[in-house]
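Q: I'm writing up a methods section and want to include an example of the input and output format. Could you take the sequence below and give the corresponding predicted structure tokens, formatted cleanly so I can copy it straight into the document?
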Amino acid sequence: MSLPADWIVPDWPAPARVRAFVTTRAGGVSEGEYGSLNLGASSGDDARRVAANRLAVRAHLPCAPRWLEQVHGTAVADLDALQGDAEPVADAAVTAVAGRVAVVLTADCLPVFLCREDGKRVAVAHAGWRGLAAGVLENAVAALGGDAGGVLAWLGPAIGPGAFEVGPEVREVFVAADRQSGAAFAPHGGGKYLADLYALARLRLAAAGVERMSGGGYCTFAEQGRFFSYRRARRSGRLGAFIWIDGEGAGFGR
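A: Here is the clean output for your methods example:
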């Protein structure tokens, strides 16, 4: 079954058995500010519509994804070791089992796909500025195991550097850890800055040893017709970033 045309398939040099996509607003049944493919169960949308939206996405997956309780933290859920059905409290997930689906939800924060170059282990991380600063990407890279030089990363749709206004305290957190981070903040008047999540993520990944990165260049805030944005509308839906290892070896868009 082919994916809806508007959904995003990463253009990255991952092995063919690594499958991944990011949903957009297209293809669901939610209405108004949640229109139409809202996947966020705690977003304030009608629960029946969210369930229908999740079921529509499930048709494109090998199994039901393991949803997370995201808290802007740094925990990485090992999906292969989980017991029970409760949603793990984590902002990243990793798996080495074919057909097991990892997912994070976003609405301005940065979804990052990660995989080993041999395709034997994959991960996805939810990286807002708090998670980035605290080390969620480093933890996700470490969870893949082995040499970080053998990790591939792809950066999905997030709020762009022309729209993400932050206070000086945010800049200070990053610069205190890495002076190079200062270049990712542009003065915006009144002591505020415009932050480049993509640049900050690339710096963090590089510091963790990841050399091959692709993706980026989106803006969830500006591209209103395509993406949800919490900064643009607090009553906002959520996009889903899904990744898994395919047992058959064929990937979308390849």
